[in-house]
Amino acid sequence: MKKMLDTLLEHHQPDNVLVAFDAGKTTFRTEMFADYKGTRAKTPPELLEQLPYIREMLDHMGLKWHEQDNYEADDIIGTLAKKAQSQDFEVIVVTGDKDLTQLADTHIQVDVTVKGVNEIKSYTPDYFEEELGITPLQLIDMKALMGDNSDNYPGVTKIGEKTALKLVQKYGSVKELYNHVDEMKKSKMKENLINEKEIAFLCYDLATIKVDTPLDFDLADTALQPQNSEQLVSFYQKMNFKSFLDKEVLDSQFDQNTQEEISYTVLNNEEDAQKLSDIVEGPVIFQLELFGENYHEADFVGFCLGINGKYFVSSNIELLTTSAIKQILESSRINKWVFDVKRTIVGLRRLGVTLRAVDFDMLLVSYLLNPDHNQNDLGELAQSYNYFDAKSDVQVYGKGAKKSLPDEDGLFEHLSRKARTIESIKSDLMKQLTEHNQDQLFDEIELPLAFVLAEMEIIGIKVQASTLQEMSVILSQQLQEIETKIYEQAGEEFNINSPKQLGQILFEKLNLPPVKKTKTGYSTSVDVLETLKKKSPIVSDILDYRQIAKIQSTYVNGLLKTIHSDQRIHTRYLQTLTATGRLSSVDPNLQNIPIRLEEGRKIRHAFVPSNEESVIFSSDYSQVELRVLAHMSEDENMQEAFKSDYDIHSHTAMKIFNLSSPEEVDGNMRRQAKAVNFGIVYGISDYGLAKNLDISRKQAQTFIDQYFAQYPKVKQFMDDTIDQAKADGYVETLMHRRRYLPDIHSRNFHLRSFAERTAMNSPIQGTAADIIKIAMINMQKALQDKQLRTKMLLQVHDELIFEVPKDELAIIEELVPQVMTSAIQLDVPLVVDSSYGQSWYQAK
DNA sequence: GTACTCACG
DNA sequence: ACGTACGTGAGTACA
User: Fold this and answer.
1) Which range, A107-121, A234-248, A512-526, has the best average confidence (pLDDT)?
2) Which residues form the DNA-directed DNA polymerase family A palm domain (predicted)?
3) What string of DSSP letters covers A595-627?
4) Residue A265: what pLDDT?
5) Is the pLDDT of residue A246 over 90?
6) pLDDT class of A182 with cuts at 50, 70, 90
C-alpha cells in the first residue's frame, strides 16, 4: 500500500491528491436494492484494523483522504474527477476496480492495477473505442444488461458480457434498446428483456457512479501538503516499518542538508565537445551512465565529465568519440576518477574508446575499506559515508517495471552530482585506505586487475551452440523416460520439481521415513534421498531426474540463452561482492560449470577455442588454501609436507592415525584426512566434521584433537586469529584485505560461532584470492610484453583458463606455471598443474 | 520476494 | 544445551 503510493507519487508528481474510502456497508445503493454487494465477503478484519493507521500515515504524508456516509469511494472519486476536469486539471484515477473505468474521459485517465499492484492498465476513451467500440459511459449500459456478480446485482437473465456488448454497440444505450425492443425478432432474449425491463433500469442506476455527491470539501483542499518527515519516522518506528524507515531517514537527511546547488554545461554537439580540447591536466572525473546492470549490452544513457570543478554533461553518447574527449579518456597522463572502473572500461570499449590512467575508483576503494559495503550504487554508498549530494539510482530512476529515465534536467543533475560525489569523497576514502595499510592492495592489485578482467570479459569464450543443442535433445528424451517411470511408481503424476509435491509423494503417500525437515516441510535434498535410496527404487529415479533436469535447465538451456551474436559468452566478474576477496561470475556464472560428474562435465565440450589452430589451456593451483595455511601458521610439520612435496592428505592421515609410513594409509584413511583438511580451512567444528564424514561428534573431536597435536602451530594460528578478530573487530589477508566480524562479540552462540569460523576461514580463502589476482595481472603483462597471441579467458578461483595458438603452446606450458607459482613468495612452494585440449572438457 | 535445491572452488 | 562446516549464482516453485 505504502509502496504503491510512493511509486504513484514519484511517477505522476501530482499537485493534488485524494484518497477515498468506503464509509460503511449501507449506502444509497443498498436502499435501492437490498442485496447490493450482498455476496461480497466481509472486509478481512486485519485490513479493517489497519485502516486507522493508513489514514494516520496519509495525514503525515500530506495527502487528503475522505469518506462519506451513504456513499461509496467510487462516488467520491467520480464527483471529484468531474469537478477537477471542469477546472482544467489532468486527472488520473488509480483503482483496483474496473467499474471506475466508466469515468474515463478527456483529461480523465483511469489506471486499473492488475496482478497485485505491479502492473497498470490505463483506460482512456480512445482505448474504449479501439478495444470495445463503445464509450466509457456505455459501460454502464452494458452493466445494466449483464449485471455484476461481485456487486451482486443481476442484470437481465441470460445476458452476459458478449451479448451486452453487442446490444450496446447496436442500440447505443439501454434506453434506446427499449425504444426499439418491439422491433426485435421473436426470441427468448427478447422475452427476457421485456420481462425484466425494470431490473435493467434499476441495474443501470446501481452501476452508475455518482458525479454529484455532496462533498463538504473543495478541490483546493486536496492540494499536496509537505510531508512531515519527523512524524513519519516516529510513525514507522511505532509500526515497525523497517524498510520505509530507512528510506524516510535518508530522505529527511537530504532535506536537512539542503542540497548544494549544482550547475553543469550541456554538450550538445561536436563543436561543444571540441571546446574541451585544451585539457592537459587531470584529474578528470568521469561518469558513464548505462541503463541496466549488464554493461556488455545495456543502453547508454549519458555521461558527465568533471573538470576543474565544472561539470560537462550530455546524453549524446557519440560525443565521447570526438577527438577532444577521446583524447582525455585515452590519455595516459591525465588521471581519471570514476565509480566502477571495469564497467567504464567495457562501456567505453563498445564505443571504440580505450580508457587509461584511472587512479581512483570509488566503488573499488570502498569495497576494500569494507567488503560489506558492496553497494553497486554510488548514491547509496556515498550516503553510507554521510555524503548527501547524489541520490541513489533507485531514487532517481525507480525500480523494477517502473524503472525509467527522468527528464533531461533531472538526468543531468543526477550525473553531475555523481561526478561531484566522486570528487569530494576521494580524499576521505584514500586517507582511510592508507590508514588500513591498503594502498598496495588497491594500486597494485585491485585497480590493475579491473583492467585485466575487463579484457577477459570483452574477449569472452566461444561456446558451440550446436553441441549444447544436441545435448538438449538427448537430455529431454532421458527426462521423459525417467518422468514416466517416476509417475508409474508414484501411482500419479505430479511436479517432480516441486519439493512440496515431491515430499507429499515420498513421505505421505509412499510412507518413506522423513530424515530431515526444512522450515516449510520435508527436506528432499540429495543427502536425504541418498539415505532413502535402498528403501524404494523411486528415489534413485528422482535423483537421476534431478541431476539431468539441473544440467538441462541451468547449463544447456541457461547457457544457450547467453551466447552473443559473436558465438561467445561474455560473463561479468563481480569484483566488489564477496566478503573474502574472491571474484564471482554472473550472466552467466562460468565459475560453476559441472566437472565432478561425467554427465555434467560433458557441458565443457561446448567451450571451444576461437579457431582450429588454438587449444583451451588450463592451469590450476594445487592445494593453495592449505599452502597458505602452512605459510600463515608457520607450522613446521605442515610446511615440511609441502616442501617435501608429500601428498598432503596422506600425510595428514599418517599424523592423525599415528602411522609411521605412507604405505599404511588406506583409501578410507586418506578420505577422512582430506575431510579434516577441508574442515580446518573452513574453521573446523566437531559438529560439521561429524556430519560430513557421517561419524560421531566424539570421533570427529578426536580427529581434530589429533590434528592439532600434530600441527600445533595451526591450532595456535586459529586461536590467535580469533583473538585478533575480537581485539580489532576484523581479520586480514596477507595483502591486508579486511573483513569485519561484528558478531564475534555476540552473546548468541550461533552468531558468535559463525563469526569465529569465518575469522579462521577468511584470511585463508582471501589470501588465496590475493595470490591468483596477482598472478592474473602478471600473466596479462607477460603475454603483452612477449607479444603473444594467447588470451586469458576465465578465472575459477584457483584456476586460469586460456586460449592458446598451438605454435605458442610450448612457451605457455612454461610461462603460465612460472608466473602463477611466483605470484607471491611463501614459506612453502606453490604448485601448478596444467593441461590442454580441443575443448574445456579435454583440458583436464 | 523467499525457500529450496544444486552446480562450482 | 545450543546446532553450522567456508565462499558463491541460478532455476524452479509458490505465496
Assistant:
1) A512-526
2) 600-808
3) -SSHHHHGGGGGEE-SSTTEEEEEEEESSHHHH
4) 98
5) no
6) confident
Return all residues near A484 (Cβ < 8 A) that are at least 6 apart.
Answer: none
Alpha helix (H) residue ranges in A62-173: 73-86, 125-131, 138-146, 161-171
CA-nearest of A321, A654, A612 to A462 is: A612
Determine the pLDDT at residue A45: 47
Distance of CA A605 to the CA centre of its chain: 30
Strand C atom within 7 Å of A494 CB: no
How big is chain A by its Cα radius of gyration, in Å? 34
DSSP letter for each residue of A758-796: HHHHHHHHHHHHHHHHHHHHHHHHHHHHTT---EEEEE-
Q: Which three cell numbers stand for residue A518?
A: 526444512
DSSP letter at A774 equals H
Judged by average pLDDT, the poorest of A108-112, A155-159, A438-442 is A108-112
- Cα A617–A621–A625 angle (5° rounding)? 155
What confidence tens digit (pLDDT) does each residue in A796-806 have? 999 999 999 99
Query: Helix, strand, or coil here: A152?
Result: coil
Other Cβ atoms within 10 Å of A140 Cβ, number: 21
Q: How many CB atoms lie within 10 A of CB A170?
A: 10
Q: Which amino acid is at A289?
A: E
Q: In the prediction, which pLDDT does A119 show?
A: 52
Task: Kindly report, residue by residue over A381-428, the tens digit of the pLDDT.
Answer: 999 999 999 999 999 999 888 899 999 999 999 999 999 999 999 999
CA A34/CA A26 separation, integer angstroms: 9
Question: In A 681-700, which Cβ lie closer than 7 Å to strand C?
Answer: 682-689, 691-693
How many Å does it take to go from CA A499 to C1' B3? 10
- Does residue A649 approach strand C to less than 7 Å at its CB? no
Rounded to 10°, the helix A697-710/A648-656 angle is 110
Proximity of residue A497 CB to strand C below 7 A? yes
**DSSP 8-state symbol, A150:** T
The x, y and z cell numbers of residue A230, run together, are 519527523
Per-residue pLDDT at A626 exceeds 70: yes
Q: Is A671's CB less than 7 Å from nucleic acid strand C?
A: no
Say how far A499 CA is from C12 C1', in Å.
10
Q: Parallel, antiparallel, or unpaired for β A572-574 and A584-586?
A: antiparallel
Going along chain A from its start, the domains and CATH numbers come out as 2-222 (3.40.50.1010), 229-258 (no CATH), 265-433 (3.30.420.10), 463-603 (1.20.1060.10), 640-710 (no CATH)
* Cβ neighbourhood burial of A375 (10 Å; 0-12, 13-18, 19+): middle
Q: Specify the pTM.
A: 0.74
Closest by Cα among A804, A807, A808 to A837: A804
For A117-153, the pLDDT digits (tens) are: 445 677 777 767 777 788 888 878 887 888 887 777 8
Q: Are A103 and A127 in contact (CB under 8 A)?
A: no
Residue with grid cell 521415513, as numbered in its chain: A513
Nucleotide closest in space to A517 (CA vs C1'): B4
Task: Return the H-helix or E-strand segment holding A798.
Answer: none
Q: How confident is the model at residue A745 (pLDDT cuts 50, 70, 90)?
A: very high
Task: For residue A664, give the amino acid letter.
Answer: E
- State the number of CA atoms in the 13 A half-sphere of A307 facing the CB: 18
Q: Give the span between the Cα atoms of A528 and A524, in whole angstroms.
A: 6
